[in-house]
Amino acid sequence: MGKVVQRRPLTWSEQLYLPAILSGLGRTWREMFQPETTLQYPEERPVIHDGYRGAPGLVRDDDGREKCVSCQLCEYICPPKAIMIKPAEIRDAASSETTGPDNVEKAPKEFFIDMLRCIYCGYCEEVCPEEAIFMTSVYELNGSSRAELVHDKPKLYEIGGTRIDKIKKWKDK
Amino acid sequence: MSSDLLFSIVAALVKILVFVHIALIIAAYMSLAERKVSAWMQDRIGPNRVGYGGALQPIADAVKFMFKEDVVPGHVNKVLYVLAPALCVVPAFLVLAVIPFGPPLTVLGRSVPLVIADLDIGILWVFAISSLGVYGITIAGWASNSKYPLMGGVRASAQMISYEVCMGLSVVGVFMATSSLRLTDIVAHQADGAWNVFTQPIGFIVFAIAAFAETNRLPFDLPEAETELVAGYHTEYSSMKFAMFFMAEYTSMFVFSALIATLFLGGWDIPFISEATLTALGNWGALLGFASFMLKSAAFLFFYVWVRWTIPRFRFDQLMALGWKVLLPLSLASLVITGLVIQTGLDAWLTHWFKGA
User: pTM of the entire structure?
Assistant: First the structure.
């Protein structure tokens, strides 16, 4: 049983429409003197808040060590299949940038994120057991070819940078 | 004798050159004003990159329009397609001929009226020529040979016929009061007595509303109606031909603002300053009158833009209903009231009262 809405007939002044039009004109007139709400984009930038999901990037720890251990969980969970990882062998000094006795875990040999496929869902960040991949505040992505928008490992580390963490995983090893 | 002839020819040519350029510059800068005012009303900034605060934007736009590729689609009627933009622009400028821009100037001891052609039938010329503009729109819609432009063209002609009637009738009261069709006489009559906006309020409202329909401005922009007809009659046009439709629209906006200023807002008359004072000031008085006229036109141009960004578009049947069922009876009523007032001698009393006040 629906509710019956009474539609009252228009009054004489409403049928003229002129009062409504005049009040609308008054509204736009007042609006002319309100401050602008837009930004002059290239010069002025919007404030990026915490939790913003921009381009994903890989991070290093305080010692400049790669945090990614190439477990490929992000590749597995990625809904649009934007991530492609080629793991390296353990202690493969040639492929890993951080060599030395500490490097007892795997590292990615190659790490690609196709930004043309990425949907910025942030699942990769959520799933990562090593806290190695993060959604950053980078929102300006452009390139002159499709290949340019497939981010490789150096590009991903450039976006991610270094992350200072409380947990020092390799400190007492 | 021959020097008089030479002087009048030179004066006419100079006036044509100056007034047409005034109209062109106003048309160009109206495009910027429209964008700026709409931006302010929507709490935006608007174009501000070209020149100081975007002051050179119209020039950048013109350069862009000229260098764009001029596409003539294969399916159009080529002759009419090329003719249509010209048919739109020319009438808009022709109407300018009868508009008095100010009191006569004195140059080299001769009086030069600030009107290109002071015709006896001034306002009839306006109605005859300004409604020719719809041919350009209809032909553009027809020649484009595709559905949306045709719809736009058909709407334009239907709208023009409906609103031409009440527009014509709404100014008859002005002629009855002035007993002349000459625009300079109408201005002089208002300078003597009260402005027609006070003596003919209904005529003023009807004329102002009909002017929106005649220039195809929102809320009556049914012929181009972006949301329903892509771009209406100029869908198939590009480059300078497209720009010419815009030029025609903005020029006729200026022309109709100037007409409203002339017919209802006292033309170049300045309130509380008598004509004798202006004449005593010589050429400076004439320039003051010109400034007053341009100010009134500019105010109405702003009103055009203001209304555009306030009121949504009418539905087509609402447009027709408003034209035939509301504006036409209103203009007829205004006519009858004016006739009664003149016949009973009330007008003399009213003029006296206005002058006393």
Answer: 0.79
